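Question: what's this shape?

___
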Amino acid sequence: MEFLTVERADGVAIATINRPPANALARALILEVDALMDEVEEDEDVRVIVLRGEGRFFSAGADIKEFTDVTSGEEFSKLSASGQEIFERLERFSKPVIAAIHGAALGGGLELAMACHMRFVADNAKLGLPELQLGLIPGFAGTQRLPRYVGLPKAAEMMLTSDPISGAEAVELGLANKALSEEELFEETIKIAKKIAKKSPIAIKSALEMLQYTKPATYSEGVKAEAEAFGQVFVSEDAKEGIQAFIEKREPTFKGK
């Protein structure tokens, strides 16, 4: 794989995102996450996956420049639905997936992390869904997963202001399991992964399946609606302005069209 490197030790597969400078979540990287699951699903030597980022960030968001290659709202909705499907597979995966988040998990990067079963964060990390800053909305089930963790009012605040929260705040709100110093983060995450790896794979698989029943009945409908809205918003003049402003590193001017 081009953007994911995988190391195996003591029942743990450590998958490292390596797409400098910001580990942006390009379509190719999302497909590699799917390929990673294919690779380890039947591997009895892998019982837990730890997902981390190389360099300064876990993943600082989607690859915005890729959006300029998308020509229609329908194509954008399909892009959204494809990412949603892979992240849903990740959340339903038969082996625990733990995200170790340092630097930043923003936009698609946070949506990837939220699809993992657990999140351990650096206390100074930044987590957020800033898509509205671009005139867009989250498209990989972020609108549905974030309220499950932080509650509806806080999710609304995070999305509508585009302001991130710290790793320490993420723990207080229930978005992350534990906040650690950046120096301790990876080592402590691996310790927990190895502890889980000693458990019965049969029992772990069953426990993960049971957790899926905690999703509300409307969850799937919300995810589908998000993909449709993602495409509708994309064809607006505001979205074009937001994307162009991001590329030009300036403040966007939205007109409500």
About this structure: The chain has a mean pLDDT of 95. The longest strand covers residues 4-9. The two ends are 41 Å apart (CA to CA).
